[in-house]
Amino acid sequence: MLKVSSPIVSVHWLYKNLNNPNLIVIDATMTKVSGCDDIVDSRQLVIKNARFLDIKNEFSDTAAPFPNTLLSPKKFEEKAQELGINNDNCVVVYDNYGYYSCARVWWMLKTMGFDNCAVLDGGLPSWLEVDYPAQKLHSRKHKKGNFKENYLEGMLINYKNVLNSFEDKDKLIFDARSESRFLGAEPEPREGLRSGHIPNSKSLPYTSLLEGAKLKSVKELQVLFSGYQTKELIFTCGSGVTACILALGAEIAGVKNKSVYDGSWTEWGSLQELPIEN
Asked: What is the C-alpha to C-alpha distance for residues 18 and 132, in angstroms, rounded to an integer?
């Protein structure tokens, strides 16, 4: 059975294993909230055999007050089965930017107790750069899967957990948004949202973990997270998406205790009773 030994795999690894019957390739591309148009000009191409996972409309609770809220474990199980995911599959996730929403799906699967999953380092840009096989449409011919959730408490947390971490010296909060948004110098892309950051949090833009479309080396990530391996790290961002890139980098760097604040700044900045700093 095909297994991944790292949270990320190279395009060469994926190409070598592309026809393995145990493999499922997932396209997790979603539009950036900022409306940036720096997405790769893929001519609507997708990696051969890839299935599309719709984070925004299918794998988030659309009835929740804030975007990208994780589905209940049972609802996630149902959606994963509809996508044809089995418990014994190996899942590789990518997006059209290299790193934006792919890590969110990796973290969601991990939260549901599914470990045999990885992110494609460099995503579609790196895949097309070496002319590996692509197609124009996502694959839709698959049987219903037998995916079973085994929800792991504490991997995705809420604002109450974050509030309770303020006075705990063993917990640190890292914000994946740009430094200008963190400092409140740049308005939030969502209308009506307060500017600033969670008190006692540190700025760590997700782009600081990247080298082009790929993640920095293991050694560079270890340096980035040096001194924090014994701490419990909480990652936040705009709406719980790019915070997962920090979680991915921390995983590679050897950080054991970590969580993602699901509501992130969209929730925190909306709740007037919660304190903010600029």
From this structure: 10
